[in-house]
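User: Quick one: structure for sequence A, then sequence B.

Assistant: Sequence A:
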Amino acid sequence: MPGTTTTAPAPPPAKAKPRKKATAPAGASARGRVDREGAVVLIAELFREYGYHGTSYGQITEATGLGKGSLYNYFPDGKEGMTRAVLAHVHGWFEDHVFAPLEGDAEAAKAVAGMFKAVDDYFHSGRRICLLGAFSLYDARDAFDREIAGYFTRWVAALKTCLRRGGVAADKAGMLAMACMVDIQGGLVMAQALDRPAVFRDTLKRSRLSLDVALEAVA
């Protein structure tokens, strides 16, 4: 009508996007059912996000799509068994991609470079926490102290072996290996605390430089 104004109707509110359910394609069977390895991967990510005590069975069944019966079949010892499987999975990855290559026949400097590349990839350049490091600080240390200590001891020993192979004296190699471990874990904590992944990458560069300098000095 003359002299009146019309306004367009307001658009309907946007629908909230449903939360995506975690999936593990590599751990699914041909029929789409998550197998034990796939369940371990998914449970590990829950532990990273919520912690050991903060992760509920409800979250585990939702993430894996497995009922309590299937979970019990895979993990007869319950949540403790799940956690030991997760820690073994993490240790196995590092054994294949970090520890064994450090102790192999490759030139020490190349093995060190490979270690830092694998570490950066695994921790998503500082965007992913170290599960064993988190467990060691709180949450589940008492229950899994042997697995946690074994992981870090193995890493320090493998790096020391690599540096010794490159000609670095035993005492210095041990000191450098431990300092590198402190750098990696500290860099991860600070990257998460400050929400600045670049802190982790910068820490890796500085730590690698100290190892490279030590190797070059005895070359």
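Sequence B:
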Amino acid sequence: MYTERIRTSGRGLLSQVKPVFLIPAVATSLFGGLLAQEFALIPGILHGWAVGLALYTAHLKDGYVDGHVRGEEQPTLSPRENQVAIRMTSASFLITMVALWWYASLAAVLVTAPLWILALLHAPYLDMHPVTVTVDYPIGIGLAVVGGYFVQTGQLPARILGVSVMFVVLLSGVKVSTDRLDYTFDQSIGKRTVPVLLGNDAANVVAATFFFSTSLLVVGLVNAGLFPPITAVAGVLPLFAASVGFVGSRRGTVRVQMFLTYPFAAILFSTYCWSTHCSVIQVLDLLRFTLIELPSCGCDTCGDRSAATSYCNYRLAKLN
């Protein structure tokens, strides 16, 4: 009986690990970190772990409120188990913050800590207002990008803030579309999402407005010189996401819009990285030098070996 209880509790804890939210959140921390010109592994891991812990805390708190306070769903953990899990996860987050302070800085902790505050406030507060229920997860993603970069550099340039804002606006549009799928259930429990408040058709217009605004942000930031001109290609994708909402089914629309966030992120990352010579480019440069250029430095048949050696020394100095 005791063994069965442990198994049940374990399944309950695992049920709050939701990869569809967890993986993108942790990935955006890595996204931000790799945009730095140098990537320190330990601070990067610590920040990604903190992002995951904050999101898991939010899911635990949401499960507790929905299952034991509101009675909206069948709880997978007892009230005591749920509360203990929240405390233990929060304690783990605190320990991670101490480690991040040690390996990065106090400022890095201050940039990361709001994720835990968002996690605890999500339910039963932020998820009951149409504005906060729409933007809280996107804001968390934006903070993950900013934090991932900050723990590596200790700086917050306008360019990385621009990336963060674009993600917040784009994902807010996706969130409004996602809430359209839950319209009937949310209306039955009095949850004031944008579709419940305005209706499904008006909510679709709101989502399209978020997507259109994302495209404008891309173009504006390119014109301001913060991103290379090629980044403007990314602005086409939110326009496509907006148009899909008016021709596709609700579920199909959400799938397409969620999918489009990935090539959008890929274009932002690659163009940002290329223009700033970020850590990924430097690693690729080192690999190319090691595998292709370095062997020629010791070639006995080279016509001008001294010139080849001088070039190799120059390339090594540049890479270092």
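The chain has a mean pLDDT of 87. Residues 41-69 form the longest helix (29 residues).

User: Thanks, that's what I needed.
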